[in-house]
């Protein structure tokens, strides 16, 4: 009892301490080099297989011609090529050019990030590939215009954003996926000797190649410029309704139709659904609010480390009650502060919160800080040993999503507290994506579900209630045929992914046309694109590198054995059991 009182006291300090304005240390550069080799990391400090990505050399072009020259050099010298921005937030190893290291070139667009051209007459903006999303949005808003679609996290470059299918939430207009607002781009592709080994290809709105190029995973060519459609400036009005989850499977469809930018966050263990009522309003509507989402705010480093220490304690002691206390307090706090909405740019005073589109559509305040500040950061910054987690993101055909919710509820109702490990992050975030012409986009109106959960410091360490997360994961991707978000997920989510995209073969045909020698492919991108299963090694299921079929794929020495799912019986999950003969 004393321990839980201490925990509540600690969380109280965490809650109210976060109201104080803090600025985070900037995220680390994803590329680190020594005298002999360079290493590429993502922003979380670990790839799915936890193995380093080593590259022979890195170049930092500042112009389109320098970018073309880098591609030409790689083509002439038979090097594998990948591109990374200054953010590197992709979870799969898509940006790693080769496992060999010595035959590769990494191109960073970190310094190719200044060109932004606004066309107010034709309502368009063209930006260099490495330009940060926030810089584009601010420039567009200064011109009295608005970019309609953007991902919730603003720590992306414009090229990276469209290449992996990043999205917000909307079934209206062109929809919530950023790539569906692309009306042109420039892409550098390999060329023959007479073409200087590389050439710039202009792809316009009516060019069929655009359907392949706007979600390309970086394997068709190197994007140099992106042209996005705009609209006249507008504001948004947001209200969160915290309510019971009893009818979520019946309400989600109407919610997406009624609210242009609506979403739902579901906390199964708390039987709570949070409906986001989010619609555009005229520019003369009073309000200068911002959306500073709680999860993307700066955190005191001490607090981030302490929360991680609490998680590890709960895991090692198998304290479900501890995780549920954390989930209760987190949900309570989100309700008190409007989940980061701020009416006047400083604090939350009540609903609705009205603000300009550019201040409401995306967030990421932990990205920005003076370099002299060393006591705060993004909570997942790998340098501070803070939060470390998985992110599973499944994209459902809308007509199948209600049945998925019903199945998750059946699993939840067996033991609701087993979902606290998901709920103390952000529950299940439910968003809307409209049907797209992109070959690797969604061919019909879809529902996207994101959920985060604890990842152990060591690959060999099993997790509390990991069978629940694994059953939900397999239920989504295999029972209901959900498609994985290209920039997120554990490897198993991509199994047989090519069969889930109607235009997959059209994409591959364009790949053969633009990059016939596979200069821009790697074993890592092939593993994702072609959904190749991992090798069934000891413990592989713990990290999502395989689906268990034998006990050794889990951790029998620590009491985790391969078992059938409790609701989805075809699932195979690693469940904690006193012996392999138990359920």
UniProtKB/TrEMBL annotation:
Domain FAD-binding PCMH-type: 51-233
GO molecular function: D-arabinono-1,4-lactone oxidase activity; FAD binding; L-gulonolactone oxidase activity
Listed pathway(s): Cofactor biosynthesis; L-ascorbate biosynthesis
Single GO biological process annotation from the record: L-ascorbic acid biosynthetic process
Keyword annotations from UniProtKB, A to Z: Ascorbate biosynthesis, FAD, Flavoprotein, Oxidoreductase, Signal
Protein name in the entry: L-gulonolactone oxidase
Signal peptide span: 1-24
Any Pfam family: GULLO2-like_3rd
Enzyme class: oxidoreductase
Organism: Gossypium stocksii
EC number: 1.1.3.8
Cofactor needs: FAD
One GO CC term on file: membrane
Reaction(s) the record says it catalyses: L-gulono-1,4-lactone + O2 = L-ascorbate + H2O2 + H(+)
Family to which the UniProt record says this protein belongs: Belongs to the oxygen-dependent FAD-linked oxidoreductase family.
Domain of life from the UniProt record: Eukaryota
